[in-house]
Amino acid sequence: MSGLQLAGVTKRFGSITAVTDVNLDIPDGKFISFLGPSGCGKTTLLRMIAGLESPSAGSIRLDGEDITPIPTHKRNIGMVFQSLALFPHLNVWENISYGMRIRGAAKADRKKRASELLELVQLPGVEDRLISHLSGGQRQRVAMARALALEPKLFLLDEPLSALDAKLREEMQVELRMLQERLGITTIIVTHDQREAMTMSDQVVVMSTARIQQMGRPLEIYRNPASAFVAEFIGTSNLVKVKVVSATEVEALGEHFTVDNMADGLTAGADAVLSVRPEEVHVLPPSHVGPNQMDGKVTFVRDVGASVETFVDCGDLTVISLATPKDRPDLHVGDAVKVELPRESCVVVKP
Amino acid sequence: MTVAGTIVSDDAAQRRGLIQRVFVGGIVDPLRRYPLGLYPTIMLGVFFFVPFLIMIDISFWHRVESRTYERAFELTHYARFFSPLFTAHLWVSIEFSALSSAFCLVVAVPFTFFLSRFRRKPQVVALVFVLCVLSLSEVIIAYSWSVLLSRVAGIPKLLFDIGLLDSPDSWFPGFWAVLCGLTYFNVPLAILVLYPQSTRLDRELTEAAQTLGASPLITFWTVVIPLLWKAILACFILLFVFTMGAFVTPLWLGEPENTMYAQLIANQMLSRNNAPFAAALGVFLVIVTLALVAITFWLGKERSAVAGGRR
Predict the structure, then answer these.
(1) pLDDT in the model for residue B309
(2) B120 and chain A: CB distance < 8 Å anywhere?
(3) C-alpha A86 chain-centroid distance
């Protein structure tokens, strides 16, 4: 069996459980994100895969071999750390070829390989520079080159882009994904940035409170969040507290809504949460009549050029609608409107 | 230059101008800018600089008969250094200082590094223990080692009793006994000097080395030692200078040929009542120590320049 399998992996630090019963099957050559807020256990999980922490229970298998008892330095993994952890006493090429030096490779071979890797990460010609003379983005690339130098079976990244500014971060996300596709290496990245996870990954593993909440393709998770937490964490979402009426109907604020997607196990009378993405919400004139609508009043319009967000106050709840400039509604603060939550866009999940 | 209407000769005026420049420019002005510097300046001046000047002065005095001495300016005491007796003891001092400092680092560097990777609580307990050892006087440590190495109650007796030695010979006095004592005395100091740097070493650096295939031992050699190099060198200098002044340990644990410099000085001062020669030896010890410190610093600079600019 190839790929990476985690079975019942649990980690406890004293009385605190950092990771609870994680089961994962990651196929070869895929790009996976562990996504979650800080303290959700995603970094601990990555560190267990790297061998830097040992699980309190469960096993980790790589290419069919149980690597749980194998120490880090025998696992053949490449890892990029949050601090990047480049060696300050070595220059760029010495950093990249550190792993080869440990294995006793000749200096000429090491230098040649370092140059190849710098080409790969699109940073040629800096072989002899000192780490302290590189910019943040350059260090990033050197750290990636170093992690890839020994052609590892697994490429692990622990929030590697968090130190970069927003623009550079987005560029690096695209570049990292393209690099991974070219090399076909199984890659796991830990991030708290859902945009980052969605940009790069084949599969997103959403975690919170030491557990996996949902796992799937980015758009699948975006469209069908399994819980209110996932709906809110992946993108923004309008979350409405509702009571289930039937398998296709819920009730909130005295209104009835027909919905297409209802989570399993929700029966009539149960408390639930209805989730609608802002871009699916329609803002209509107050005279409009139709199903799945609520009366409201515009409280704020955020027009940032590329998109327009309209905040509508519907009693106890503020609904946000997102529109492209093309569809820019002619709305002002104080206008009375109707908002429609289309039934095909409504997802009802457990609270 | 006129002082209160009196005309002073050019020569004297120049000299006075120079003294004033040095005094005002070198001491008064900086102190005016940094008044807090006054405290260390006074402390150093009163307790180090003035006694040192007095010592230099006495080192040139003339020794009359065998018991007294009078103010003079002669270099006879300095000339005596070059007799083999004194150069031999200088060498003994340097040898003991260098070897014991090196042994001390061999023990202290790994100990401190691994201690700094522990959790907070065991670290504090260990450091308190180290502080306790540090508070022991040289006398107590030398006495303890003499018991430990003795024939009747020490390690030789133990090894004899369990059959590893044919006869329980005393391991002191001697070269290795002195080295043991000096090393033991300095280990706690070395740990406390190295500890802050050690805790500041980023954990992710050693972890990165391990993901790249380095075993913990190789990580220690290729990452930890190079990164702590400056702290290790500074610690070596400190230990070296400390050990150069060792007195009780070589006296108690050593044989006559293990006599270190401080003992020579004490001997001249107390037994022979030859203060000028003792002072001259003292001046020489300070100069040699400063020179060695300078050389070590210079080596450190070279080394870090090489490490930094290696192509």
Answers:
(1) 38
(2) no
(3) 25
What is the pLDDT at residue A26? 92
Residues in A touching B204 (Cβ below 8 Å): 81-83, 85
Minimum Cα–Cα distance from A146: chain B residue: B212
Out of A46-50, B84-88, B92-96, least confident range: B84-88
Number of separate domains in chain A: 2
**At A44, which CATH number?**
3.40.50.300
Quote the radius of gyration of chain B (alpha carbons, Å): 25
The pLDDT value given to residue A329: 72
**φ, ψ for residue A143 (rounded to 5)?**
-60, -40
Cβ-Cβ contacts under 8 Å, A127 against chain B: none
Q: Please answer yes or no on whether B222 and A85 come within 8 Å at the CB atom.
A: no
Task: Determine the average pLDDT of the residues in B140-149.
Answer: 88
Query: CA nearest A132 in B: which residue?
Result: B308
Q: What are residue A154's phi and psi, to 5 degrees? A: -130, 140
Domain residue limits at A243: 236-349
Chain A residue numbers touching B311 (CB-CB < 8 A): 91, 128
My answer on whether A211 and A249 are in the same domain is: no
pLDDT category at B1 given cuts 50, 70, 90 is very low
The span from the CA of A183 to the CA of A190, in Å, is 19
Q: Residue B208: its chain A contacts at CB < 8 A?
A: 79, 81, 85-87, 146
pLDDT per residue as tens digits for the range A108-119? 999 999 999 999
- Which chain A residue lies closest to B225 (C-alpha atoms)? A89
- Which amino acid would we find at residue A183? L
Q: A213-229 burial by CB neighbour count: b if 16+ within 10 A, else e? A: bbbbebeebbebbbbbb
Is there a single domain that holds both residue A203 and residue A267? no
Q: Which fold has domain B85-309?
A: MetI-like fold (1.10.3720)
Query: Identity (one letter) of the amino acid at A323?
Result: A
* Mean pLDDT of all residues in B130-156: 86
User: What is d(CA A334, CA A323) in angstroms, rounded to the nearest whole number?
Assistant: 19
B304 to chain A: nearest residue by CA? A89
Burial of B2 per CB tally in 10 Å (0-12, 13-18, 19+): exposed
DSSP A79: E
- The packing angle between helices B120-135 and B84-117, to 10°, is 160
Chain A positions in Cβ-Cβ contact with residue B223 (cut-off 8 Å): 87
- Whether B213 sits inside 8 A of A130 (CB atoms) is no
